[in-house]
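Give me the 3D structure for Zinc carboxypeptidase.
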Amino acid sequence: MLWFTCVNFSFFTFVNMTLPLYFYKTLFRNYNQFKCDQLYGRLLLEDKVHTLNHKLSHHLSIKNEGNSVESRIITSFNLGNGPIKILVWSQMHGNESTSTKAIYDFLNWVTLNSNVSNQNLTDLLQKVTLKIIPILNPDAAFKYTRFNANNVDLNRDAKLQSQPETKVLFSIVESFQPDLCLNMHGQRTIFSAGQKPVPATLSFLSASSTKDRRISEVRLKSMAIINQMNAMLQNFIPQHVGRYNDGFNINCTGDYLHSVGIPTVLFESGHYTNDYEREVVRKYTFLSLFKAIEFATNFGEINIDESVERNYNEIPENQELFVDVIVENLQINQEVKRVGIKYEESPEGSYVVFKPLVVEIADKSSFYGHTIIDASRTLNHFKFKDLKVGDEFPELKINENVFVKKFKI
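Predicted structure for Zinc carboxypeptidase (409 residues):
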């Protein structure tokens, strides 16, 4: 398997570090060869992450950067010796694990290709120095919560730097002096890519650095990287890439880093059809991460012209247009209604439970649905006679098949 990986990638050489589309299609096709199967679904288990870190430490430089509120180690992997320094981190929010899986897949790809002396990898690591923090907020990650153990949102702590995890991150920024930061997050299923009924599978942001959202050279550099990722992704998930809102908040990490002159790209790994495990989205996140690193190798030679901002703004802006399920033709108190349902996520043991909650009861829904169900043939309308917004939606059975129910991943 390792030799096969080498053969597939050996046709490409990094000339000015620009890889052809076929390289990314090959990565996608061979994904299972380097995917970290230990990590699956939404809740990443602490013992499996520790085992994976130990395994990778035999091949990659690993460092304990500091500790979380509950004294868990914040780990970084350090690769390459090139002049372009890139800092990558994931899971500032503990319930956003998709990009963490993609990061570990990238580290595993590096390990496998190091073992077979892949010239492409050698050339890449001569161009860049990478410091990668797979899990910045481990207390929250292993409990599947957004905030850290002090109930603080780390992505609103950039200016104060009041939390141990934030202090670790900005201590690294000060000592490592990155040319580029990649701030990797996850996005809820509610987001569309623009006004169309298309889920935002990946979204990106070049954050504002001032209240008036002026376009600086730093923002343009981040935009240029986003444009490259978008152009690549359109070959895999056309129209499914969004642009996150750039409202300014100096407490947000990307806004703060742009304000001090460090290009920073926000990643938001979102939803793909029926992919509540985020196993499909992890692949596209991996490809985006790889593309960002590849393009950044030319950071000093990026041509910034008016097309950069124009192309960036042509990426459709995220809108909150989706619910998870729309149930049509449901009789509630002898009236036919459309019911909008969103799944509420909560950890339960080693799983994440998805509970269907009613968010809208209307004659005509104001949302698009990832799934649309016609309830006209159900025989148990009586179960829904007192249904109201905020309720957990009862199981809907049609012809002995249950279509809406609580599930866990």
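Residues 1-15 have pLDDT under 50 and may be disordered. Let me know if you want a second pass.
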